[in-house]
Amino acid sequence: MQRYTFYFKIQKLFTHLFNYYFLTLDSENMDKLLDNGESLPLVESFYTIQGEGYNTGKAAFFIRLAGCSVGCSWCDAKQTWNPLEYPPVSVDNIVEDVLKTPAKYVVITGGEPLRYRLDTLCGKLKGHGLELFLETSGTERLSGIFDWICLSPKRKKAPRKDICSQADEIKVVIENEGDFEWAEENRKQVREGCKLYLQPEWSRSKEMLPKIIEYVKSHPEWEISLQTHKFMSIP
Ligand code: SF4
């Protein structure tokens, strides 16, 4: 019994030291640590159904990375904001977890996943024949190879023009009526054929959905995206 208590204490001490090491790294050092993209600060990964945007309804493995500097007030992933709370996980381990499922599609999301070099992760996933979807605010430099790029531009920090031109869909969150104008501004930045979605901010859905319906009826180039995973009570 005493031996177990001793081991337990040692294990706890190592966990504290490990967390202390990563929590005391400033973001510059963290970036250096992750620079080659061999490890990434993983918040969570899970196999579920993509609930929103063009790929709605597809079974997909989600990889959620930590860190975002945009700071949307209504963000439903605020727990991801501080990357220092998530010690790096090796890309090999992340890929191994994907391969335990029958997933054909992988969604890389965040936070803002483009804070990190995604070439290694994408290369290894592609090596297993998986299709890769990116969810991004477009505020960081693009890395990695993707089959589908979903750009969700945010008013607090406009997306980079080079990412706008590569987006396959834009998904604009509508929190208030001013966001329709923001949606149109972004529409001008994307290429012809890019899918255009308006999505009600979840907590304002009751007020905004009727307005979005009317907007789409009078501007039929736009479509409606709903967060169907929330209706299904799945992650
Ligand atoms: S860009 Fe996305 S992750 Fe970042 S604060 Fe906004 S909603 Fe949250």
Structure description:
With 235 residues, the protein is α/β, with parallel strands linked by helices. It has two domains: 33 residues; 196 residues, Alpha-Beta Barrel (TIM Barrel). Helix 4 links the parallel strand 4 and strand 5. Helix 3 packs parallel to helix 4. The longest helix has 22 residues. The termini are far apart. The model has no long low-confidence stretch (mean pLDDT 91).
Strand content: 15-25%
CA-based gyration radius: 19 Å
Q: What is the name of the CATH class of the largest domain? A: Alpha Beta
By secondary-structure content and strand pairing, the structural class works out as: alpha/beta
CATH architectural designation of the largest domain: Alpha-Beta Barrel
The figure for the number of domains is: 2
- The succession of helices and strands, N to C, reads HHEEEHEHEEHEHEHEH
Write down the oligomeric state.
single chain
Which fold name corresponds to the CATH topology of the largest domain? TIM Barrel
Cofactors and ligands present? iron/sulfur cluster
Q: Helical residue percent?
A: 25-40%
- What would you call the shape? globular
Strand tally is 9
User: What is the tally of helical segments?
Assistant: 8
- Report the average pLDDT across residues: 91
Question: What distance separates the N and C termini?
Answer: 40 Å
Low-pLDDT regions: none
Largest sheet, order of strands side by side? 3-1-2-4-5-6-7-8-9
